[in-house]
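Section handout 9: paired folding examples.
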Amino acid sequence: MSFSRVNTSSATLTKNRTEESISPTSGMCVTCIDGCVGMCEIGKSAYRGHEVIYPQPFGVITCAGEKKYPVDYSHFNIMGTAAGAYGIEADSDKAIFPAVNLEVVFGHDKGIKFKLPWLISGIGSTNIAKNNWEGLAIGSALAGTGLTIGENVVGMDPQSKFKNGNILDTVDLKRRVKLYRDYQRFGYGAIIVQANLEDTRLNVHEYAIEELGVECVELKWGQGAKDIGGEVKIKDLKKAQMLHDRGYIVLPDPYDSNVIEAFARGAFKEFERHSRVGMVTEESFAATIKRLRKAGAKYIFLKTGAYRPVDLARAIYFSSKYKLDLLTVDGAGGGTGMSPWRMMNEWGVPPVELHTLVYQYAKKLAAKKKYLPAIAVNGGFTFEDQIFKGLAMGAPFVKLIGMARAPIAAAMVGKTIGQTIDAQQVPVYVERFGNTKDEIFVTASELRHELGHKEFEQLPTGAIGLYTYYERLAQGLRQLMAGSRKFALKYMTRDDLAALTREAADVSGIQYIMDVDKKEAEKILK
């Protein structure tokens, strides 16, 4: 059984000439014929080379791997019960699903509160993020959840001003922070500024703390999509040279005269901007934490990726020892940027395995009475059942689920619907619900009542789309939790899940479905 697709994918805009007779090992057509123009990935690589490493078309897509892992969250089912209730009186008139409390409070001083147990955990300098930031920021703020401004935003901003390599002023980062804060309500949620190696060299965190009043900052060791630094493509020579001057790796060299001449004649149309990989040591990590606290950081987070288990152990240990407020662990296979396609599919520890290790390592430290930060897990979460499973898999240590592609999709759809409304060209599939914001978006009346008519009319439909998607997730999660009789997140346990296969049980430590409640059932039957 093959878990991977090779040599053809919509992500790389490639396909096989023979759609049925494909070699399962190489992904090549069984009969590779002389005279083919090269529709497959090998063929396209013969004339576009390294460009085919990355998903396309860049700038208007998000991507996730299509590899089928041996174990995933669909191999677990949620266990409900017909008796009792946790967190509420066992009374049928009181234990109703709207009564489920989804609020999360975390941080060393319990000073961060979210209305819903998830956050967007890092959307940075890509066009897809910038072009949808209004919807993402405003929708997240209205919903009372967290939003992370990802890496390289300052460095990519043409209007940023520097002196001696340090940031003095920036337009884009200020805009992103302000959009969120303008719609933040009742102290719920948080805007988080992330920094990678280049951001650290530009003193982005210090700027965010001291000039923008940001309370939550995040160090980035990596993500689940790739084990190298972030990448984007640049279509403008001057911008490529600007990024080179700011310390980024830009390929090919935008100052090479031969490269400039080739770009001018159209031999290639895009430069690549790459970030460097970090080199983690405890000494440098401790120094960074000390520096950020001295600069005034109130809360410090760490995000790590699908690296080797020893790196996860290091991340949890450092987060414990230096008393961080949140650790985010991102499983393999996802991505919102321009991660290399084969890397996205074939690199890293998959979500179920990685999240199981998170539980195991956190449990070891908890047994020693060590401090543990709140933990968030990422890895292709999109709907309420997956959110429930991720929280239960890591209970009681996992407090949040990290998402990116799904919220972006919701914001993009909301934005697109708004454009069709303005153009009076609402597609038939949507038009059956109406032709206005109030008719199409099911949360419109709620938002109009809460915000008032004037402020509601100013809301971008991307924000309404994200808010409405979150409303669906919240109600769905409440229903699942009520069925398990768990009326607050703190009551969720790994026993709320059952593994559907022996392999899933062996990997996760979750009981196999036929072993669940065996002793208790025998007692009743006796």
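Moving on to protein 2 of 2.
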Amino acid sequence: MNRGMPVVKPKNMKNTLLRLLELTKGQRRGLGWIMLLSVCTSFSAVLSPYIIGQIVNRVETGDIITRLILLLVAIYLSDWLVRFLQHFFMASIGQRMILHIRNTLFTKMKELPLAFFDTRRHGELMSRLTNDIDNISSTISDSLSQLMTYFCTIIGVLVIMLRLSPGLTCVAFVSVGLIFLLTKTVTTHTRKYFAAQQAALGVLNGQVEESISGLSMVKAFGREERLRSRFHENNAKLCEVATKAQIWSGYLMPIMNVINNLNYVMIAVISGVMAAKGLIGVGLISSFLLYSKQFSRPFVDIANIYNNFQTAVAGAERVFEILDEATEPEDVPGALELKEPRGEVVFEHVVFGYDPEKPVLRDVSIKIEAGMKVAVVGSTGAGKTTFINLLTRFYDVNDGRILLDGRDLREYKMADLRDAFGVVLQDTSLFGTSIRDNLCYGREEATEEQMIKAAKTAGADGFIRRLPQGYDTVLQQGGAQLSQGERQLLTIARAVLTDAPILILDEATSSVDTVTEQRIRRAMLEITKGRTSIIIAHRLSTIRDSDLILLMEAGQIVEKGNHEQLMALNGRYAAMYRTQTG
């Protein structure tokens, strides 16, 4: 199944930036200090050209300029100190903002339903959590304080230029208009290319994640060359769009410098003519030429910063796409606490499909008494795992309802409901921590004795003690140093340790040898006593002692009864059993 989802290009920069601004609520005081420092920094840019003009005038008249030079030196030294403080505060605030964004996104991911992850490439989601947020981080840390400084500088310089010469100020505005038009033209192209770059990077990360996790399968089928070819293809696509993005963004600075220099020449010529006519002095020309540089340069830098914003905005919108996803259903008002559940389960005319147009379960009705041991069997795709997913509320039914102890599952608090189940899924999930931490994952307060007893019950204690550090052995990612059967035994022990009133085993013995299977079967007889147990199995020999066996086909229960009843029925179950046992 293709789980990748297309990523749209940024559609609304204004709203995205406003949403980023909302995330700065906890840092508003720090941003206020940065704003004050930005005003102080712009003060140097505004005042220094005026003082230089005064120095030129006094040199022309032969006056003493020592105090003015000392004042100019003091301004430049103060400017260095203020800029240092500005960068110091911005780095701290920027990283705290990114910390908040990354925590918010990760928290959101934990609240999303399984349906979201079933339709997305995991590597692409990882790219959003890392690369996209890093792009936002670099933009905030490098650009935000500069934008504040440039804004204050432009306002201050514009006021002084108008006071010195309104006519020359109008000439300076010519370059500003040209820069604005050029920026609009270039960013129209760079926006889509930077968005495509982030999308291509997400696809590449998804392939890398899948390739590493499935490397053994790649080697087993000899598909290294095809994998390499696909990687080169995706990498080349990323290179292509990234090159276009960088080329278009690279147009800005060289052309803007040309515009800036031409504007400088125009002002110099016009001011020279005005000086020759006695309209202005040499000191004013010196000041205004410096002010024209001060006035146009922020626009050049702002245009470059705005161009770099394309990457950050593309990443921010990809982050907000996840933040805007619907979370798992919230508890209904007045949700019930589930204390000491008995374990009676009733399916009433349940209909469900991952795609509502294609039902997987069709009008399923069954009653499971508390304490009953129930096995669900059937061919692949019959709906067995879906049966479990609905019971644990990984998904909600499309129609009908599921009752637990006489109440609809949706009436209970989600946390209480999940605590009522001990689950062993078909795909083992182990974390890169110690075996001890993995076993106690669902019950952190468990004692050493309880943990060891659960491991012995599942038949895992023996191989655990043979490991170098025993229960303190740190597993590689996913428990790669263990066999598939050993990993399965650990997940069974973890479920046993939770001591939940309802036990679900989804193909729990599918990856173990026959000897271990018999040991698990004996353990299952022990751990299922006094609790409702639902077992999905392909090996029918492991569920002969079940109180109720449900045979599913095409999303419906076609046969039900215990082993003897179904064998006497001589139907599909009997045929399956005879086929397996010979």
